[in-house]
Design a protein that fits this description.
By secondary structure, the protein is of the alpha+beta class. The protein is built from four helices and eight strands; from the N terminus they run ββααβββαβαββ. An eight-stranded mixed beta sheet has the order 1-2-3-4-5-6-8-7, with helices on both faces. Helix 1 (about 25-40) crosses helix 2 (about 50-65). The longest helix is centred in the first third of the chain and has 17 residues, at about 50-65.
Length: about 180
């Protein structure tokens, strides 16, 4: 099975595969510093802990091995500033993508460039025909990323539980097909 690169260069930052347990302290600190920023949109932050961070990194290792999920830390100058991922969804020809940043890293195009780099890496794999991004309709910052990258809004669907504090009950789904 072909895999994406462990490190993907993006100019002034890199996407790098999570390093399992050696990343626990840095990942936990990144989440801890980002909780208030993430809380409105991501329900998992209410239960984050060092133990859950360790579990996430363990699952990341296992899921990378199976190709289920490819999780990346976003790092600039040796410091973690966010994460992005791609994971299998309902159709084996497509994958979903997700991303979030530390609040100090927002507004500089990092999420857009990280997503573009990960999309290019995924389209280099033979079995990926399309990518999707889903977000709450009220999360305009998250919705700007697929719009900037040429994704097409394909439909709206009910949000998957559990709900986050700002959850509207729905998700906007965007799709980008493999370039010809």
């Amino acid at each position: 099975m072909e895999r994406p690169g462990r490190v993907i260069g993006c100019g002034d930052f890199v996407l790098r595969r999570w390093r399992g347990r050696s990343d626990v302290a840095a990942a936990f600190r990144l989440i801890e510093e980002s909780v208030d920023h993430l809380r409105p949109w991501m329900s998992w932050v209410e239960q984050y802990s060092e133990e859950r961070t360790r579990d996430f990194l363990d699952r990341s290792e296992a899921n990378w091995a199976t190709g289920e999920t490819y999780n990346y830390a976003i790092s600039a100058d040796g410091s973690l500033i966010g994460m992005c991922q791609t994971y299998r969804w309902t159709d084996p020809r497509g994958r979903r993508m997700g991303y979030w940043l530390h609040p100090a890293a927002t507004g500089r195009g990092i999420a857009t460039r990280a997503t573009a780099a990960l999309a290019a890496e995924m389209f280099a794999l033979p079995d990926v025909e399309y990518l999707e991004i889903a977000h709450d309709p009220a999360n305009t910052a998250s919705g700007a990323v697929p719009r900037r990258l040429g994704f097409t809004r394909v439909h709206d669907e009910p949000a998957s539980p559990p709900a986050s504090p700002s959850d509207s009950g729905g998700e906007v789904v965007w799709r980008l097909y493999r370039p010809a």
